[in-house]
Amino acid sequence: MPANPDQVLANLRELAALTSDSNGAQRLAFTATWQKARDWFATKLRGLPVTRHLDAAGNAWVTLPGASPRSLVLGSHLDSVPNGGWLDGALGMVTALEVLTALASKYSAHNNRPPFTVRIVDWADEEGARFGRSLFGSSAFAGTHTIAADRDRTDSNGITLASALATCNVDIDRIGEATREQENIAAYLELHIEQGPVLERLGLPLAAVLGTKGVERHAITFHGQEAHSGSTPMLDRRDALAAAARLALEVRELTLRINAERHSDSVSTIGSLKTFPGIVTAIPGRVECTLDQRDLSPEILATLYREAVAASHRIAQEEGCIVEWSRIWSIDPIPFHPHLIHLCRASIAETLAAATRTEASQAKTTDAAPPAEQVLSIPSGPLHDAAEVARTGIPTTMMFVQSLHGISHNKIEDTTEAHLRLATKTLTWLATQS
To answer: For the whole model, what pTM was predicted?
Structure first.
């Protein structure tokens, strides 16, 4: 079943030109530009034997009926962060469209239907950039939504999430009805850029995804003693900033140690820090910081958290401070389906083998691509809609394509054309095997 990588590239460029400015992509969810992107996508369905509808949470579903109602779903998202890249989310949607188009063309040429139903889903507000609520549409689909907590979330202009949804004809009190879309789904696949540097560092174009890492996210406050910076001797200080700074370094070291001991790839980040009173002539009496910890193993994630808490109390005591922790948010690690991961690896191996055979024929060499068992499998640090789908028990997996310089959520986000072509061919192969 031939899919057309050239069409994928053309559509990606067309979407970027339509919804980006000099600073990058501007498809912020529930805005006019996001709706423009969705309307553009709908025009690409003209002439195809498909239907399109919005569910109760604003997710957009496209259906190519098959001989069986059991469906394969290809999903991603069209929304972006402000000043985002041209591939994040959009690549998965545009490539899914090409796979569906190829299937429809293949079977309609013989006045037939695919043996299974094929669906595309554009999840609403994957990024959460506007209201701070990531995976909005997919969590409603999964039944893990939080209407009470989300109703009054506001954007930078004071607009509530509930009112923004209403402008898109979505009633926040009914988003739970999106779970109805789970019926008859046999498998879910998602193609995404890696958003990190691992594949580029290893010189690999593609990888299967093992699952999404769990997250522990906490607010940490150190209380010391505010005092004059000029008159307080160094040994008499109870400097809350000194304690927070030591914790930031300690967290980095303990994460590196645990990675070495457990052969894991945990990450820990103190991403924000605020000092009070925050003036040059005062020793900080209070410091608030945030800690984000991630790993695919629940046990390792628990160890990271436990050791960070212990380190904070030891440091606080040594600096004459006290420390308080409060949980901001957490999510368990979510592994993907073993059989689909295997099929993803096999599909990558087959695509690379075909490319290698072509190159070897042209160069008259006998180079060989790696077998499936040698194809890289990696966890995803960022969360994705696939994680919410997997939480329902629907067999799920993802495939990553290399990101240049490991950069995403930025206008310079990029992937080579050669790797985008390989990703298109591989997703097509995987879809037909799944």
So the answer is: 0.90
